[in-house]
Amino acid sequence: MKNKVKVFGIIIFAMIIGFSLTACPDSSSKDSPTVTSVTVSAAGGATSVAKGSNLQFSAVVAGSNKPGQGVTWSIDTASKNAGTTINADGLLTVAAAETQTSLTIRATSKVNTSKFGTANVSVTTSGPGPGQEQGTEELSVGMISGDEIIASIDKDTTPGSIIVKADSSHTGFKWYKDGILVTDSNGKSQFIIDLAAETAGQHTLTVEAVKDERPYASTYFYRVAK
Questions:
Q1: Residue 26 lies in a domain
Q2: Is residue 190 part of a domain?
Q3: Containing H/E element for 5?
Q4: Cα–Cα dist 141/223, whole Å
Q5: Whole-number pLDDT of residue 154
Q6: 3-state SS class at 91
Q7: What is the β-pairing status of strands 134-135 and 190-194?
Q8: Domain check: are 71 and 107 in the same one?
Q9: Is residue 86 helix, strand or coil?
Q10: 3-class DSSP assignment, residue 44
């Protein structure tokens, strides 16, 4: 009799444990991050990039349960020049000999590799883009795309430097040199180009600003001769 009671108790105990295990939800699968979209953008909202220059890209991974923001960068354009590359940080380098007129940049989520986003940029020549080119013997500047913000180029104030002045009616300035944010110039309405420190050739300069609560952005090329 005692053995029967003991066996019966063991069965009841096992049933309770089994019920507990089946009743508990799988919280690990419920809380796993999911990715719904990946948005890709270029610094300063740039839509074009000059041959022989760089442009910084960034990506935002959207989804539930805070998916990781890590992405893998690649260029989807077939038959591009071998010298046109994008690194692990999203910095695009366009070869001076690039023959493609546009490039498609892709960012693929590391959380879910089936989710990716793309952005297209046109490739311009090393010459001036839309708008008038202006400058000095050492430096020439022309607009590539966006809103006209640069007001003047001052060569004489600081010997060996070029001061690019933006329209002072704007605020919240951000400057990007070759696609990389120059934090020392945040909020300033002018950007100083040190000719001694510059390499010869073409570079890009993007400025972002706000006026009357409207965002403005434009990208310029500047070409240094030494």
A1: no
A2: yes
A3: helix 2-23
A4: 7
A5: 60
A6: strand
A7: unpaired
A8: yes
A9: strand
A10: helix
Token pair recorded at residue 171: 């605020």
Residue 201 structure tokens: 């050739």
What integer pLDDT is reported at residue 115 of this predicted model?
Answer: 96
The pLDDT of residue 159: 62
**Residue ranges of the chain with per-residue pLDDT less than 70:** 1-30, 126-159, 225-226
185-201 b/e with 16+ CB inside 10 Å = b?
A: beeebbbbbebeebeee
For residue 30, what pLDDT is reported?
65
Contact 100, 79 (CB under 8 A): yes
CATH of the domain at 67: 2.60.40.1080
Residues 43 and 102 placed together within one structural domain of the fold: yes
Residues 112-139: tens digit of each pLDDT: 999 999 999 998 875 444 333 344 444 5
Classify burial at 69, counting beta carbons within 10 Å of its beta carbon; exposed 0-12, middle 13-18, buried 19 or more: middle
**Token couple for 27:** 């919280």
Question: Do 47 and 122 meet the contact criterion of CB atoms below 8 Å apart?
Answer: yes
Structure tokens at 53: 């220059």
Indicate the number of domains in the chain.
Answer: 2
Q: Which helix (H) or strand (E) holds 39?
A: strand 34-42
Closest CA to 109 of 121, 119, 118, 120: 118
CA distance 13 to 8: 9
Specify the pLDDT at position 114. 95
**Residue 4 structure tokens:** 């029967």
